[in-house]
Amino acid sequence: MALGVKAAPFTFVLHALGIALAVLVLIWNIDFRGGIVWESTNKSLIFNLHPVLMLIGLVIIGGEAIVSYKSLPLKKEVKKLIHLVLHAIALVLGIIGIYAAFKFHNESNIANLYSLHSWLGIGIIVLYGIQWIYGFLVFFFPGGTNGLRRESLPWHVVFGLFVYLLVVANAAIGFLEKLTFLENSGLAKYGTEAILVNFTAVGTILFGAFVVLSVLSQGQAEDEYSYSAI
Fold it and tell me: Where are the transmembrane segments (predicted)?
C-alpha cells in the first residue's frame, strides 16, 4: 500500500524535526540537567547520556535509516548499505544508552527494570538487534535466495516499522516518567524545563508519524531502485 503523494515533503519535514529534536535533547541535558558524562560523583550526569543516546540513536538515526530508501536518489545497493549502516549506528547507540541507565542505577543503588519503560526498552533493543541481524544475513551478506528475499521483504519492512513505532512510544513513556520524577522532586510543572521536555516528547511522536508517512508515500523514483515493500 502506498499513498498517492511524493515522499519528499514528508522527508524534508522529518530531517528538520530530527535536527530540532537533537538540539532540544542536548539543551535539556546539558543546560538544564548539568551535562553528560560517563564518570562522575554526580550520578545524575551519567543518566543524562540515556535520553540523549536513545533519542539521537534509535529515534532519529533509526528513523533516517528507515526513510533512506525514500529520501535518497541513489542506486538500490548504495541505499541498502546506508540503510544497514544507519541502523547499526542506531543499535550501538541504543545499547550504550541502555547501559548508561543501568550504570546510573547501579552506582546510585537504585533497582533496575522496575518500570514499564525499562521492560519495553529491553524487549525493543532485542527485537531491533534481531531485525538487524536478519536483514544483514538475508539482504546483505551472505544473502538469501531471490525467493527468500522476495518473500521476506514485506515482513521485514512491516516488522521493522512495528519495532520503530515501539521505539517512539517507549521514548514518549520515558519522557513522561523522567518528567514525573523531576516534578515530584520539586520541578515547576509549568516551568521552562517541563515545557521543553513536553515539546521534545511531542516532537518525537511527530517525527515517528513522518517516518510512517514517508514509508507509505512514493519515493524519488518508483523503479527498480525504489523500495516499495509496503
Answer: 12-30, 50-69, 81-102, 122-141, 153-175, 195-216
